[in-house]
TrEMBL record:
Domain ABC transporter: 6-233
Record-linked InterPro entries: AAA+_ATPase, ABC_transporter-like_ATP-bd, ABC_transporter-like_CS, ABC_transporter_ATP-bind, P-loop_NTPase
Name of the protein in question: ABC transporter ATP-binding protein
Native source organism of the sequence: Devosia litorisediminis
CDD domains xrefs: ABC_NrtD_SsuB_transporters
Keyword presence, Transport: yes
Organism ancestry: Bacteria, Pseudomonadati, Pseudomonadota, Alphaproteobacteria, Hyphomicrobiales
GO molecular function annotations of the record: ATP binding; ATP hydrolysis activity
Classification via Pfam families: ABC_tran (PF00005)
UniProt keyword list: ATP-binding, Nucleotide-binding, Transport
Length: 261
């Protein structure tokens, strides 16, 4: 098995006396799709803030490709919960934003993003304003802006949380196809159990705050996963839900469980 690209060891974080993360250890290997599943307010987004440089941990370490993560080299492309498209920029100019921030000229950036518009289902919408797109299209535009930066790893923070159920299911299928095609190393935050099972190679289940890793689950369902409602997927979902709902303080003190389903 390949060495981890990203490795968090014993990460702890408090805010003004509020303990949020408590000894979080997890890893993601090259090309893996890993999810962090946990209750609302557990501290999932705080993990991403530690990775993207906004925050420093109180304890523990973060390594990327075996070396400490340095402030000047952030290997992550990050997509936040809300699409954060700028309403005053056309879709094409929203998708070039990350590249322009990195110093690429707008014309070179446009050339780069244009090749991806058909794959992201956005061909013909380059000159539209964000308000003229559906929710799913806006999320695809935000994801295009994220992946075109060609960073080593994708961090997705509940990217489909604001979408209706039907659009969300379509986006999950589309993301699976894109992930298989491009082999993106991906860490996804979600509190949607079904989404985690459908997309992930492995899932870390967190307790509520202060978050600890309660269970690590390897999802061995074959890919491509077309049938969201298969008996096996439903059994994994039920098991995960049970784990989440029974995440008591007693379990919190047990060592992390590891399971392959
Ligand atoms: N900069 C901050 N200062 C103080 N408290 C913070 C800060 N950032 C987060 N918190 C607190 O840390 C806790 C965890 O927040 P976080 O956003 O990481 O949770 P989450 O699991 O991502 O939640 P959700 O699933 O609802 O998005 C919350 O109680 C929040 O109020």
């Amino acid at each position: 098995m390949s060495a981890p690209r990203l490795e968090l060891r014993g990460i702890a974080k408090r805010f003004d006396g509020l303990a949020v993360l408590d000894e979080i250890s997890l890893h993601v290997r090259k090309g893996e799709f890993v999810s962090i599943l946990g209750p609302s307010g557990a501290g999932k987004s705080t993990i991403f803030k530690l990775l993207t440089g906004g925050l420093a941990p109180d304890a523990g370490s973060v390594a990327f490709d075996g070396a400490p993560l340095l402030a000047e080299r952030r290997p992550f492309a990050f997509m936040p919960q809300h699409d954060a498209l700028m309403p005053w920029r056309r879709i094409i100019d929203n998708t070039t934003l990350g590249l322009e921030v990195q110093g690429m000229s707008r014309s070179a950036a446009r050339e780069r993003v244009m090749t991806l518009f058909p794959e992201f289902g956005l061909a013909g919408f380059e000159q539209h304003w964000p308000a003229q797109l559906s929710g799913g299209m806006r999320q695809r535009a935000a994801l295009l802006r994220t992946v075109v930066q060609e960073r080593d790893m994708l961090l997705l923070d509940e990217p489909f949380g604001a979408l209706d159920a039907l659009t969300r299911a379509g986006m999950q299928r589309w993301l699976q196809t894109m992930w298989e095609r491009h082999s993106w190393t991906t860490l996804l935050i979600t509190h949607d159990v079904r989404e985690a099972v459908f997309l992930s190679d492995r899932i870390y289940v967190l307790t509520d705050r202060p978050a600890r890793v309660l269970t690590e689950i390897s999802v061995s369902l074959p890919r491509p996963r077309l049938d969201l409602a298969s008996a096996q997927a439903s059994a994994i979902e039920a098991d995960l839900l049970h784990t989440l709902l029974n995440s008591t303080s007693e379990q919190r003190n047990r060592p992390c469980l590891t399971a392959v389903i």
